[in-house]
Design the sequence.
């Protein structure tokens, strides 16, 4: 394989020997944790359920 003096080409064997981590994930990123309480989540689910019910009611009116 021909390579220039300055090259980004690295042999697979060298990568495996050095045990490089080539995953696309950022190991320094902080995990996003949902800190809402179960009660808050239930409130949100109920509110979204009401929105869906209202939208369905509007669609049913158009279907008549």
Sequence:
């Amino acid at each position: 394989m021909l390579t220039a003096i300055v090259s980004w080409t690295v042999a697979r064997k060298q990568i495996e020997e050095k045990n490089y981590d080539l995953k696309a994930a950022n190991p320094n990123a902080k995990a996003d944790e949902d800190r809402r309480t179960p009660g808050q989540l239930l409130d949100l689910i109920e509110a979204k359920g009401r929105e869906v019910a209202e939208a369905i009611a509007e669609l049913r009116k158009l279907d008549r």
About this structure: The chain is about 50% helix and 0% strand. Residues 42 and 48 are 10 Å apart (CA to CA). The chain has a mean pLDDT of 87.
